[in-house]
Amino acid sequence: MREYEKIRCAIIRGGTSKGVFLLENDLPRDPETRDRVILAIFGSPDPRQINGLGGADSLTSKVAIIGRSSRPDADVDYTFGQVSITAPLVDYKGNCGNISSAVGPFAIDEGLVKAVEPVTTVRIFNTNTGKIIAAEVPVKDGRAVTEGDLAIDGVPGTGARITLNFLDSGGAVTGKLLPTGNLKDEITLSDGTRLTVSLVDAANPAVFFKAADLGLTGVELPDAINSNPQLLARIEEIRSIAAEMMGLAHRLEATAKSPAVPKIVFVSPPCAYRTSDGRVIEAGQIDLVARTMSMQKMHKAFAVTGGICTSTAAKLEGTVVSEVLGPSARRGKVVRLGHPSGTLEFEIEITRDAGGNPRLEKAAVARTARRIMDGFVYVPRRIFWPEV
């Protein structure tokens, strides 16, 4: 009897993240067995992920599960999983916008969607959020185009432009654009600190606070935050309190049960700062400065779904994010975020329903993606059948 089963897979960069892409039909149907297989594919839990395909970084420890959709409004179903590096956990609570940008090209190249030149629109049903993402993918000779002239901060070189429109993405996880019904809420930390936050759910739920309210400048780079365990603990406490307020998890269980959702973002007004690679971002290039966390560490760039939520919060007058937003973004639809690796731009349209409640009509962003390899990953048979 052979010791291993082999599973088709591809490693693909999507935006500033990298993931292992798997076909739904190639995985076990039982959720527990499926997750054991995925953890084995990544080599988790292990800080180095030395025995699998994970890259020992939360931005490269991501899985995308793709299959044909039976829905009339979608071409493919896509499930995102954040694979923990330190615990035997695959978190499916929310989506990853960067990985989403690679789903369209993958679906085209795998023959799940018919290629139409020069641009194929792939309608993606994200099972995590129950929302549709429309991806406009450039195509030539029946394949997704990789080469192009779009540069995105945090990724070397350039690539073909993939435009993502997250359709009706308000209330993606909680069912409400404003989960508590408020533009701002007050919370109290265990040390007695009172903090004003905004809880918004667009593409993914997130909690926002002003950097200055926690004694931060807002332009900190990852090393400055990640080397401060006391600060990391306070930021995670804020996120855990927000998780409970959103009904996602009890605050004492939030880190273990859903370390990736809700996201947490601290914001500050537009100002000049240096990126991680030493470039200067001028105040006039951005509409606000934002920093977000990924699995309890500062994100080296910025999550796309987190960026959609941040930009949406910025356009909702009365949130803590709107209070730091630059004047040009108040007038138009485009919001430009300044993050540790550079800038990220979103087009946001918010309307009001008959009752005057805000509705997120459009949230669009441009990304690039590149298939790095494909083949088979070998998983020990004992992972599938532990009793054998």
Automatic annotation (TrEMBL):
Gene3D superfamilies assigned to the protein according to its UniProt record, in alphabetical order: Diaminopimelate Epimerase, Chain A, domain 1 (3.10.310.10)
Protein name according to UniProt: PrpF protein
Keyword Cell membrane attached: no
Keywords on record: Isomerase
Pfam families per UniProt: PrpF
InterPro entries: PrpF-like
Lineage, top ranks: Bacteria, Bacillati, Bacillota, Clostridia, Eubacteriales
Organism: Desulfofundulus kuznetsovii (strain DSM 6115 / VKM B-1805 / 17) (Desulfotomaculum kuznetsovii)
Record family assignment: Belongs to the PrpF family.
Keyword set includes Protein transport: no
GO MF, one example: isomerase activity
SUPFAM superfamilies: Diaminopimelate epimerase-like
Highest taxon of the lineage: Bacteria
